[in-house]
């Protein structure tokens, strides 16, 4: 065989290979010896499985379910590339009666999607989201073995260590963090014997590489230990962290730092005056005095003038949410949004940015139709009167409490004095 990672060489008879593998599997479970035609990658995996105490009649255990699973998936880096996986593999899986599966670095399945009948069959062996399919849990299988050996791999029929999985064939490839090279998990295609083809292995490998390329664009760069950070969402006074110091800024200093962090090229005095003050009578002298005080708070060398600018890049929670929204990582954006930007600020530019971020996120949440994300927004202080979000939540999670709250909001909106409810409070 030219490629030891491919299950069947060209011209091999799948039925005859299955018979030979079943005999070899029986021999291994009884005597611990491996016979041909078991591939070296599979033989090594069988040995690891046996050393881990996996039995051939075992089954996968479900470790995460319901809310725990949803929260874990939302925070996992591979959530950012699930739209790509679905675009590249979804139709192939459905049309071919296969399953698209994605696991984390521990072999725990995060998503299992595809043909409905095939999913029902897979459910019977706990090939479901939240179940652990690592080699140490269920023995040889494509996603678990791909993570264990950090290589794309096919597992054909009786090459699976657990007997109840042996009617299946799968191919999986690991996905790495493009910044660190760390294995994040694996993408897998699971189905019948037709997947025992070199093309299926090449396919998942190409999908994994595409995911890594997209992650390189979506994941923020690793923040260096000495990179200043600004937290301004959900608080009236921002917190600036730099060189081991955490400084709570005044409201005006918070506004200035938010604006300068968004404009690394700098802002002139006139631009800052317009951005910060509603009152046109405020003089440049007032602004210069405020900036002088901010320079003393931040310490030497961080704030320059002509134009006013920060001398080093500053990472902010505002920028993180914006990047995630721009890349379509709605779940990550929602998790990073801890509240409206400097909610008490009346600075014109800050108010515009506050509305821009909130409107962009709520629009994305409504379009996503994820009940957990919609519920988080609706039950937050800034979303409790957001009629559009409550309507979207009622459409996907029509519980009695949701319907009751929606009815109350619609009743208030219909009242002549309730026009203030027509816009959510940001």
Automatic annotation (TrEMBL):
<dbReference type="GO" id="GO:0000160">
    <property type="term" value="P:phosphorelay signal transduction system"/>
</dbReference>
<dbReference type="InterPro" id="IPR001867">
    <property type="entry name" value="OmpR/PhoB-type_DNA-bd"/>
</dbReference>
<keyword id="KW-0238">DNA-binding</keyword>
<dbReference type="Pfam" id="PF01590">
    <property type="entry name" value="GAF"/>
</dbReference>
<dbReference type="InterPro" id="IPR003018">
    <property type="entry name" value="GAF"/>
</dbReference>
<protein>
    <submittedName>
        <fullName>Transcriptional regulator</fullName>
    </submittedName>
</protein>
<dbReference type="GO" id="GO:0003677">
    <property type="term" value="F:DNA binding"/>
</dbReference>
<feature type="domain" description="OmpR/PhoB-type">
    <location>
        <begin position="244"/>
        <end position="310"/>
    </location>
</feature>
<dbReference type="GO" id="GO:0006355">
    <property type="term" value="P:regulation of DNA-templated transcription"/>
</dbReference>
<dbReference type="InterPro" id="IPR029016">
    <property type="entry name" value="GAF-like_dom_sf"/>
</dbReference>
């Amino acid at each position: 065989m030219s490629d030891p990672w491919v299950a069947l060489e060209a011209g091999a008879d799948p039925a005859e290979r299955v018979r030979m593998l079943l005999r070899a599997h029986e021999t291994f479970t009884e005597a611990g010896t491996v016979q041909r035609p078991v591939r070296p990658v599979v033989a090594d995996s069988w040995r690891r499985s046996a050393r881990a105490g996996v039995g051939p009649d075992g089954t996968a255990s479900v470790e995460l379910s319901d809310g725990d699973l949803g929260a874990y998936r939302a925070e996992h880096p591979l959530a950012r590339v699930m739209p790509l996986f679905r675009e590249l593999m979804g139709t192939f899986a459905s049309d071919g009666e296969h399953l698209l599966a994605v696991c984390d670095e521990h072999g725990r399945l995060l998503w299992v999607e595809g043909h409905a009948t095939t999913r029902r069959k897979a459910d019977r062996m706990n090939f479901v989201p939240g179940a652990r399919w690592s080699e140490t849990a269920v023995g040889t299988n494509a996603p678990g073995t791909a993570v264990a050996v950090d290589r794309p791999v096919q597992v054909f029929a009786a090459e699976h260590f657990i007997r109840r999985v042996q009617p299946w064939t799968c191919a999986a490839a690991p996905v790495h963090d493009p910044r660190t090279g760390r294995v994040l998990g694996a993408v897998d295609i699971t189905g019948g014997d037709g997947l025992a083809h070199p093309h299926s292995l090449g396919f998942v490998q190409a999908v994994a590489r595409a995911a890594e390329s997209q992650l390189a664009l979506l994941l923020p760069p690793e923040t260096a230990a000495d990179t200043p950070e600004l937290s301004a969402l959900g608080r009236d006074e921002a917190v600036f962290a730099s060189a081991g110091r955490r400084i709570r800024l005044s409201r005006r200093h918070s506004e200035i730092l938010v604006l300068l962090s968004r404009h690394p090229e700098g802002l002139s005095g006139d631009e800052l005056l317009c951005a910060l003050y509603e009152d046109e009578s405020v003089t440049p002298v007032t602004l210069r005095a405020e900036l002088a005080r901010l320079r003393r708070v931040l310490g030497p060398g961080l704030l320059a003038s002509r134009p006013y600018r920060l001398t080093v890049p500053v990472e902010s929670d505002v920028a993180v949410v914006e990047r995630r929204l721009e890349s379509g990582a709605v779940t990550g954006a929602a998790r990073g949004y801890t509240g409206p930007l400097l909610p008490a600020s009346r600075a014109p530019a800050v108010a515009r940015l506050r509305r821009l971020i909130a409107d962009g996120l709520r629009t994305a949440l409504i379009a996503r139709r994820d009940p957990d994300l919609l519920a988080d927004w609706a039950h937050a202080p800034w979303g409790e009167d957001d009629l559009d979000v409550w309507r979207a939540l009622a459409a996907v999670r029509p519980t009695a409490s949701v319907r009751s709250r929606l009815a109350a909001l619609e009743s208030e909106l219909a009242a002549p004095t309730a026009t203030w409810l027509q816009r959510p409070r940001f």
